[in-house]
Amino acid sequence: MNKRQAxxxxxxxxxxxAGVANAADKEKEKCYGVAKAGQNDCAAANGSHSCxxxxxxxxxxxxxxxxxxxxxxxxxxxxxxxx
Length: 83
What we know:
Elements: H1 3-26, E1 28-32, E2 64-68
Antiparallel strand pairs: 1-2
């Protein structure tokens, strides 16, 4: 395989992966207050950190995790960040 073919294959793989990720995102929602320490999906709502996996406490109200749509409140989570 030459460089050109490798670049085309990589570009196609990226496009396909992006399409799958977007479809999966529509089936998920942010759920606050359900992430265990070190298992949050992204930045804290209050700005205390800016990256995934940096939560220090279990079930922190400002920490969130993606969950399947319709399940957040069933597991005692909140769909919006605390004020």
